[in-house]
Amino acid sequence: MRSSSPPIARGAWLATSCRARLKHELNCRTALPEKSSSACCGSRSGLQPTKKSDPLINTQGDSMIDYKPMLGQKGPTFHCRVEAGKIKEYAAAVDDMSEFYWTDDAGQQYAPPTFSHVYRSGKMSAMSSADLTRFVQGEHEIVYHKPLRPGDEISYDIEIVSVTEKDGRQSGPIALIVLQTVLRDPAGEPVQTIRQTFVGKR
Known about the structure:
Elements: H1 7-31, E1 78-81, H2 84-93, H3 99-102, E2 135-144, E3 153-168, E4 172-184, E5 190-201
Antiparallel strand pairs: 1-3, 2-5, 3-4, 4-5
């Protein structure tokens, strides 16, 4: 009688085999010279070595980008009105059943802490001069000065408040850009201060 491996064993073997093949192909991808005709991993027309000009891999041979002129750049101020229905929609989306978000008493209803992100469609406008494909977000900080309530009229002021250039240990020259968004009420008092730090290749 022909024996067969249990389903779990076959599945484990298949996963191990796929991982080994993927590791082998990745090794071939980085080991092959640029114009090599080797048939490593089979004949694959789409398999190409990584080039040094890739901005996400190596920029030592390229001229570095100076991000310092971006300091002080601002996005356009935009305004919104907090709506009771939108608070409930957001609470449902994040699965938060707190009574403070669902009450029909406008005097007792508050918006969730991160609700302000709903209206931040233009938050990256201050960085419009940068190639955003070179950046990832490193930190995100929110300072709450007072809660958002239904009927509140809020303005958003966006500005780049810090640009720091330094040499990363492994990634080479990098830039740290801090984007600050301040939410204000009609009297100009801050409601929230949001600071995002972006890390980018130079």
